[in-house]
Amino acid sequence: MNLLLRGGVVLTGPDWVPVPLDVQVAEGRIAALGAPGSLTGEAMLDVTDRLIMPGLINAHTHSHTLPVRGTLRAGTLEDLLLSSGWMAGARGEELSELSAIIAATEMIASGATGVFDLMAQAGGPDPAGLWAAARGYASVGLRTVLAPMVADRSVHEAVPVIGECCGVPASGLDASAIVALCREYVEGFPALAGVGPAVAPTIPAHCSPELVGGLQSLAVEHGLRVHLHLAESKIQASAGKERFGHSIVTELARLGVLGPQLTAAHCIWLSDSDREALAGAGATAVTVPGSNLRLGSGVADVRALLRAGVKVGIGTDGANSADLLDPLDAMRLTSLLSRAFVQPASDWLTVEETLSAATEGGAAACGWDDVGRVEPGYRADLAFLDLTGRAFLPANDLANQVVTAARMCDVTDVMVGGRFVYQDRTFPGLDLPALESRFRLLVQEWRADQAGARGMAEAQIEKVRPALAAERARGWEPDHLL
Ligand SMILES: [Zn+2]
Predict the structure, then answer these.
(1) Does the global pTM surpass 0.90?
(2) Dist. CA 288 → ligand 1 center (Å)
(3) What distance in angstroms lies between residue 378's CA and the mean position of ligand 1's atoms?
(4) Alpha helix ranges (H) inside 266-366
(5) Is the pLDDT of residue 482 over 60?
(6) What is the mean pLDDT of residues 379-404?
(7) pLDDT tens across 158-170, in order?
(8) Beta-strand runs (E) in 159-306
(9) From ligand 1's centre to the CA of 468, what distance in Å?
């Protein structure tokens, strides 16, 4: 059916100039844009007082961390990685599915139409649990790329001071077993509209060359994205450099992973030549500002990434370090943090660059070339904001106000592939209160199961704290912590 959205104001890239336009949607895509009153449709929806923009893409999150939201108070990335065993602890398929559903509804309520989710599972990838999360996303209707996040080295092995202090635990599955499970996940992926698989060797120093190479081959064979964490903390970058004898980006090039299929999250502790190599390869970076501030990891120099020619998307990260999965908030932080570098105001991210990163840039990170604009031929993935809401009171500069003032409460509706997945601030067909209460119950049981592993992780965090603090104090050029 062909639907006409009549009476709204369209705001889209690359120019981001708001224009009153009617939007015709057919077969899940934008069929036409026209001056108010100039188009027809088999069905008509009055969207007067609505700003229609491409939906935001949350280009980096972890739905499996929903059950541990807010758990860590003051902790660094390394503390989080020491906790990752219990935070990704074994769970039933229902909890994986519910976590994806809750995550999806939270992101959609903040104007998201798409997500890249990296899901860790203690003990190695479990296809059934991953497929359950995929079904969860599909049931809400969020466009999704879902990857099993894997490693064959522990943080104890990857960061030598942790291993020296706490010992190195027995290794789990080897690279070939992990790749085989990822293959099973990819090749058995259920047919779900708008949801597809990817691979994710989590952090280069946590993965053997055999694991990275095996996943890269699987990605090439099936045309998948490869998503990893790149130079997120100073300790991660320096441990990587020591292990590889050169920068992590150089190592990715050596392993054959540096290419257009690569999505690299964080990208904080990089040199100019690293950024040039990413750009030259056509890789996409994802900045994750809320998590980086929360964990004291540093601040990605997005201006330097853009100047080098790297495509940039924006992510929230998981609920263990975000803690809200709020893409509007992540976009605002990205804009503000570009002003934290010593540079002229003319080098701050522009409103247009920021909006493009949050939409088209995120779509590039997910491998979607027909998502991220309100333009004929593109997918009808749209966010509707209330022009009578506080963010636009008064309406002075709509594009700027989306970045600086819009919050979750300003989003009224979200459409994905021509279907409303959020309408008048409700989720059609979802009994959210019932799902939330079931989630609470399952989380309570799951957390009780993790108590022993959590206690061991917390003891290790205490034990290694002085050594990690000394590592963090080591110099790095240029230093990004503010
Ligand atoms: Zn992450």
Answers:
(1) yes
(2) 8
(3) 28
(4) 272-281, 289-294, 302-308, 327-337, 351-356, 362-366
(5) no
(6) 98
(7) 999 999 999 999 8
(8) 195-197, 200-201, 226-230, 262-266, 284-287
(9) 20
